[in-house]
Amino acid sequence: MVVIKGRRRIGKSRLVAEFAKGKTFLSFSGIAPVIGVTVQEQRDIFARQFVAQFRTIPLTFSDWYDAFMHLSEKLTDEPTVILFDEISWMGSEDPTFLPKIKLWWDQMSEKKSNITLILCGSVSTWIHDNIINSTAFFGRISLHLTLGELSLPECSLFLKSRGVRASAYDICKILSITGGVPWYLEQIQPEKTIDESIKGLCFYPSGLLVAEFRLIFHDLFDKRGSIYVKIARSLASGMKDYAKLREELGYGHGGTLSSYLDTLITSGYLTEHKSWSIKTRKPGKKSLFRLSDNYVRFYLKVLEPQLEAIQRNAFENIPLKSISGWTSLMGFQIENMVLNNRWLILNALGIHPQDVVVDNPYNQQTTTKHKGLQIDYLIQTYTNTLYLCECKTTTSEIRVNVTKEIQEKINNLSIPRRHAVCPVLIHLGDISDAVRDSGFFYRIVDIGSFVDY
């Protein structure tokens, strides 16, 4: 038994289909639990899929155990992969669904050793609470996989395999919108420029990414979708701690907001960055919450304010850089992308993960002794070295005044004795010779090198 979870469009079903090549593959999927969809209709969909794959006479199942036993009767001694996709949709409204899967699997797996049963879905919290953490499935799950985004190099290889040819800057431009979500990347048409593809996906009335946001928050979060949208909208402007979020959203001191944040983290849309003491190396009480899904942030900051104009097809003859909010958001999107691929930065700096105490965005609170500051990405190692990483994106050129900006952060940072600070510039775009020749930076890391082919 294998359990795979991961957010919408991340490639879970495709991964299973690739794994099942050369084996008998039986795939069953639930349907979205919109208003009016009953438990019996979920079983009817299962029955239709059963009939289509086994080419039997029409069937009706009034009980899930009956459906599973019919499936057992059709299994052979050939290696077989059975996929129950969007399993939360299949069974969330029937409290007997999972107990019957467990009973069926216990009986069937004793008789057959050639079956791989894969339980898969996008509603990660339901899977986490009802399967992974369920005592009923204890000792039965052989593999639990949370499928995440493709890395920057993998995105590059993926686009190249589809015939996309573009500069490193343009590749990063599209990834700043899509992140490493394979389905979004599949929509990039190799015969078009990157700007043409972005406009087609985002700024035309029929654009696929115009409607995607509503589908995410309706399909995954159903009745509470509006609450999760409010949280995402609050974080779209930047990272916030719990107190600031609670104040903005008007929540009390109870645990309701915490549970909503946990759901978005488990679903892959938010990331929690724990604070820590550089001096003691111990975790702090506060956390910063980051909207780590690039598409959701792009939609909220750029597309949502322009929806009416998009529906009027007002952007048909307007270049991307002229669209309100586009240029200013690009830097934030690239920074987000870098944090989602931080292992590439560690590799570029020659830092082994085992040598890292903490690596996160860092927020120093204002006190009577120290000014407040926020560092894009701070790496603390066991050798008492602090790598202060600043992320910059430009279409022109990064000039030498960037050294003064970062030196000011170093001056304001509360640095314990016997600790060294190594400034690191992570950039997308050109940098001046003066920056290179200054000798100020320990390393200069070009984001474009991660996607350049």
Number of separate structural domains: 3
Total number of helical segments? 20
pLDDT < 50 runs, ≥5 residues: none
CATH architectural label of the largest domain: Orthogonal Bundle
Structure description:
The chain has three domains: 2-146, Rossmann fold (3-Layer(aba) Sandwich), CATH 3.40.50; 153-338, Arc Repressor Mutant, subunit A; 341-450, Trna Endonuclease, Chain: A, domain 1. The chain contains 20 helices and 13 strands. The chain has helices at 12-19, 39-54, 64-74, 87-91, 97-111, 124-132, 152-161, 168-178, 182-186, 194-202, 208-219, 225-235, 242-249, 256-266, 294-303, 307-311, 326-340, 342-349, 401-412, 433-437, and strands at 2-5, 24-29, 80-85, 115-121, 143-146, 240-241, 270-276, 283-291, 356-364, 373-381, 385-398, 420-431, 443-446. The protein has a five-stranded parallel β-sheet with strand order 2-3-4-1-5, sandwiched between helices. It has a five-stranded mixed β-sheet with strand order 9-10-11-12-13. A three-stranded antiparallel β-sheet has the order 6-8-7. α19 (401-412) links the parallel β11 (385-398) and β12 (420-431). α8 (168-178) packs across α15. It is globular and about 75 Å long. 33% of the residues are buried.
In short:
This protein has 20 helices and 13 strands. It is of the alpha/beta class. It is globular and about 75 Å long.
